[in-house]
Structures are given as structure tokens and as C-alpha cells.
Specification:
The chain is an alpha/beta fold. The chain has one domain: Alpha/Beta hydrolase fold, catalytic domain (Rossmann fold, 3-Layer(aba) Sandwich). The chain is built from six helices and nine strands; from the N terminus they run ββββαβααβαββαβα. Strands 3-5-4-6-7-8-9 form a seven-stranded mixed β-sheet, sandwiched between helices. Strands 1-2 form a two-stranded antiparallel sheet. The longest helix is centred in the C-terminal third of the chain and has 19 residues. 42% of the residues are buried.
């Protein structure tokens, strides 16, 4: 792991967690990925996701997007009090400001010494929604969203999108019901910039290791698709 944060203004910096590929030397460059958190903050699970993508050759940084109201939040879905706290933070979170903070992260990574200038984003749950909006509202080259919540209410944002997007959809997601999934498919099935993958028997957070809905075999399929997608658009 290396040190990195994002300058917001003269008084504020946004921290986070960065993982770099093993063996990356001072003069070497690699593509970068912004890892977008769930509602639990930059916790051990998100750090593990960063380490995973670093092992695939991507410099990966997870910005602390909850920093504006409480920095360095680390919560767990296994603790009922922390789970309720996470939902409370989710309700307080300003999605539009979050996208702007991701865009600031994008700009900061462009100046990172080892960055090759190719940057994408990967997000989960809340982060999946933010990954979608990042594809729509910024010039980030590519984004991947896992079981993003609330995308069906933001379909119009994709009307001017020119970037590449992949969405992983859990068909039994309790937070993205069938009618929401149908709206997403109707809007995006014919969009050449958007790739949708459905997972018929999966529920929300099926790639969260240690979670109640984790499925190692299906998570591997989804993650392989993600890495191939990132390789196609960030390593060409």
C-alpha cells in the first residue's frame, strides 16, 4: 500500500485506501481504478476489493466518500447497530456531491506518478449507483457497478453518456425489485455503451465475502467479467 489522498481545497483533503500492483517500480505506470464504497465506508471488505484489483494490475484507490459528515467510517453488516448506522449514513449522503468527489479523485489520480492516464471505477451497492452516475456525468473512461440501488430512478442521466459501463444485476435483489430491473433493461438493452449481466439466483451483495448472500462461484464469474472489461477499456 502507498500513501495517497485527494485535495479538496486549501483546508480539506479526502483520505482513503490505495493498493498498487506488486513490483510496480518508481518509473512504471499502470491503469487506475476508483473503488467506490458501499454504505459501510472504506472497511476491510473494500480494502480487500482494492487489493484484489491491484493483484490484477490496477492501481486502486477507495476514497472515503462519507468524509464530509464523518471521516474514516468502518462499519459491518454483521452488527445490527452498525447496520442501522450505515443506513442512517446512506440517508444523509449527498449523491450528487459524491459524484463530484469521485470526479475530484479522478483528477487527482491523473497526477499520480504511476498512473498511465487510463482510469475507471468499480462500485458496490451505493457504489454501484455512483459508478453508474460516474459513467453518465464524468469523462471517466469506464465504470462497473455491482447491484447498484436506485438506478431505475436515474435512467435519463444515461442519455448523454459516451463512456463504457457494465452493470451486474442480482435478479433476487431485495433492494432492486423486478420492476426496477425491468426498467433498467428496457432503457439499456439496446445501448451499445452499456453491458448488463443478470444473475438469476443471486441476492444483493452476492460478491461480498463473508456476507449472508455471498456465492463464491458466481462472484468469480462476475469478477472475471469485470477484470476482462477493465482490461479491454483501460489497457488498450
Amino acid at each position: 500500500m502507498a500513501d495517497f489522498d485527494v485535495k479538496i481545497d486549501a483546508q480539506h483533503r479526502m483520505g482513503g485506501y490505495i493498493a498498487v500492483p506488486e513490483g510496480l517500480g518508481a518509473g512504471d505506470t499502470a491503469p487506475c481504478v476508483i473503488m467506490i464504497q458501499e454504505i459501510f465506508g472504506v472497511n476491510d471488505g473494500i480494502r480487500q476489493k482494492c487489493d484484489w484489483l491491484a493483484s490484477k494490475g490496477f492501481i486502486t484507490f477507495a476514497p472515503d466518500l462519507f468524509w464530509r459528515f464523518k471521516p474514516e467510517i468502518e462499519l459491518s453488516d454483521h452488527n445490527e447497530d452498525e447496520l442501522q448506522q450505515a443506513f442512517d449514513y446512506f440517508g444523509k449522503f449527498d449523491v450528487d456531491q459524491g459524484v463530484r468527489d469521485i470526479d475530484l479523485t479522478h483528477q487527482a489520480l491523473m497526477a499520480y506518478p504511476n498512473c498511465n492516464g487510463q482510469i475507471g471505477a468499480v462500485g458496490y451497492c451505493l457504489g454501484g449507483k455512483l459508478a453508474y452516475l460516474t459513467a453518465c456525468r464524468t469523462d471517466m473512461k469506464t465504470s462497473v457497478g455491482y447491484y447498484g440501488v436506485g438506478i431505475e430512478a436515474l435512467l435519463a442521466d444515461a442519455n448523454t453518456m459516451n463512456n463504457k459501463l457494465m452493470l451486474h444485476i442480482a435478479k433476487k435483489d431485495e433492494f432492486v425489485p423486478p420492476d426496477a430491473q425491468e426498467k433498467i433493461h428496457q432503457a439499456f438493452d439496446s445501448n451499445d455503451n452499456i453491458t448488463l449481466h443478470d444473475y438469476d439466483e443471486m441476492d444483493h451483495a452476492f460478491t461480498r465475502e463473508g456476507g449472508d448472500n455471498y456465492d463464491a462461484a458466481i462472484a468469480k464469474i462476475a469478477d472475471t467479467r469485470t477484470v476482462e472489461f477493465l482490461n479491454t477499456h483501460l489497457k488498450d
